[in-house]
Amino acid sequence: MIDWKQLSKIDAHIHLTPQDVINANIEYDGVFITNGSIDDYIEIMKKYNIECAFIMPFNDPYVLSMDFTVETSHKNLSKMIKDKNSKFYCFADIDIRKNIKDTIKEIEKVLKLEEFIGIKIHSTNTYYPVDGFYYEKIFEYASKNNILIEIHSYPRDHLFDDVCSPSRIKNILSKYPNLRLSIAHLGGFQYEELIGLNAYFNMSAILPDMVNKLGIKKTNNILRSFGVDKLIFASDYPDSRCLKPNEIYDKYFEILEQMDFSQEEAEKICKYNTLKMIGKI
Questions:
Q1: Is the pLDDT reported for residue 82 higher than 90?
Q2: I want to staple 204 with a disulfide (CB 3.0 to 4.6 A). Which of 47, 76, 236, 271 is the partner?
Q3: The predicted structure's pLDDT at residue 127
Q4: What secondary structure does DSSP assign to 37-85, as a single string?
């Protein structure tokens, strides 16, 4: 049996909170405040052999800044990880209230910084369809400039035209087939729509939910259906629909240790596929 806890790994999807935001909301009992400290997370990295993690924004400037602007969100992300010896990278945020030209200008600015490696699109938080005009202009820009995009895709089970549904992602890829794309949460329980697409797929948030609903064997088969070379380890720490923050990593490794991945496959999922995704190998 593979000891997934001891494997060197990259967590390709986590959320951390700037300290000034934590301080201003210290009485709020939410996981992004109580478990959002980067210093606390560095201790978790040591425990679980996480050598690097990617911090994801929310497309909601109220979460990562105290003046509620995307520009300050970016400054806070950069400041938070600047001197952490490449233990962290982050993705550019988006505020769809802004003019699209200003948004692309801001993205261009932050992507010149070495700590930013892509763009995050979270249509569920903005209540705006991922294949809508605003986001499409960002996909067009990213495709033209070979920039990695991560899309949140955990739609409501019964809504196949939800704002982040795989059907909408397929619309995007039909227009921009060479887009460098990572899909978070495997498309939720609409995962079948994504199988075979030219993208990477990370298991953040969805893995324990899928096992709870479908069992280990079925979930194992679903993960394999995406292709081992396209699977990415990610947790969504500290967020989970079914686990407390301090339960997330132990549960992930408990689940993965019951699956049939070989040592080589596990190393790809934990690290090497992610390095290929971001162009490091």
A1: no
A2: 236
A3: 96
A4: -HHHHHHHHHHHTEEEEEE---S-HHHH-SS--HHHHHHHHHHHHTTST
